[in-house]
Amino acid sequence: MEISHEDTWDSFLDEFFEIFSPSHLLKKKILILGSYITENFIKLQRVRDEINKDERHLAFFELTFSRFHNQNLVFKFDLLARISDELLFIVEHDKGGHMIELGIVLAVNEYLQKTKMFVLKNAPITQMLTKGSLLTPFFKTKSSLFYFESIDD
Fold first, then answer.
1. Which CATH number covers residue 125?
2. pLDDT in tens, 82-100
3. Which residues in 79-110 are b (16+ Cβ under 10 Å) and which e?
4. Could you tell me the residue range of the domain that residue 128 belongs to?
5. Mapping DSSP to helix (H, G, I), strand (E, B) and coil, where does residue 111 land?
6. pTM score, two decimals?
7. Domain tally for the chain?
8. Mean pLDDT score of the chain, rounded to an integer?
9. CB-side neighbour CA atoms (13 Å) of 51
C-alpha cells in the first residue's frame, strides 16, 4: 500500500486534533527524540513531564501518534518536525531510529535550526557522532549541544 505525503498530512492533522485541542497549537510544541527502549523511554517521559509543567509548552513523542505506526516513519517524522517549534534530542546511545532522525535533521536546515541536542557524557557512541554530527557547523556546545551525566542534570 502506497501512501502519499499529502494524504499522510491530512490524516496527521485529523489525529492531532483528536489527541490535542486546537489551543495546543498556540503552545510551544517540543518533539522529544531519543531511544524508545524501555529504560531510556522512562527517562524521556520524565523529561516530557518536566517540560509540560510549564503551561506554555507541549512536549510529546512520535509514539503519541499511533495511527502512523505502520505507515511511512520518515513521513511521520517529517510531519512532526514541521509542526514542532523545537526538536529535543536526548542521546544515551547510538542504536535506534533516533539516529535516522538525526540524519534527517542534519539534511534539512529548517529542522537543524530548531534542534537542541543533549548527549550523555561518556556514552558509547560512534565516531560519526563524536567526530562528525555533533561538531560545528551542525551543533555548538552550550548553544545547541549539551552534555549531561544523568537525566536529573
1. 3.40.50.450
2. 989 999 999 988 887 788 8
3. bbbeebeebbbbbbbbebebbebbeebeeeee
4. 28-148
5. helix
6. 0.86
7. 1
8. 86
9. 20
